[in-house]
Amino acid sequence: MESKYSKEIIPLEGWDREETFRFFSTFKQPFFNVHTEADITPLYRYCKTNSLSISLAYMYVTLLAARATENFCYRIENEQVVKYNGLDLSSTVLKDDNNIAFTHFPYRETLEDFCREGAEIIGEVKKSRKLFNGYQGNDLLHMTTLPWFTYKGMEHAFSLTHEETGVPRIGYGRLEFQQDKVMLPMSIALHHALADGFHMHLFLQEMQAVISNYKL
Q1: pTM for this structure?
Q2: pLDDT in tens, 57-90
Q3: Paired strand residues for 214
Q4: CATH code (residue 111)
């Protein structure tokens, strides 16, 4: 499959994850899911002040954190491990006919540019009859949002019939307002041959640091 970003092969022989990779690569279902939440209070207030979409904003900070976390950039292609030097995202969009569309959202340098372009993309996709809209490669994050209810966890769909490339899968629930905080429920699924719980911790730390940059 063609990719948008450049990539480098990680030699498996002597890699510090070699034994872990070989072990989990034999699993029929190699993903592990973590259900957690993120405090997005600064980001929420920034978006309200600047009339930005909060859903596009938390997708954006997730993308920034993933791009800064090495293990989120690993993929499995042709039985090799590769590391992408950039990531975009693909998220479900609810169309006007109440069916979903998998939709490409490209990385942009600023939150404002990402939200502006993202709103335009959503407006077009809502009228589309296609399931897939825009670029769909391995150098993406897969995202979905369930804004109608909160949840304590979700399991992501996966196929048993094709090669698993290890694209991270991230789901969001309805925002929870807790006194003076705004919490975002999240479900994160990672391929265990490529990442462990510690790497998810690094990602969540990075995401919280990015969010804190939007303090008013």
Answers
A1: 0.94
A2: 999 999 999 999 999 999 999 989 999 999 999 9
A3: none
A4: 3.30.559.10
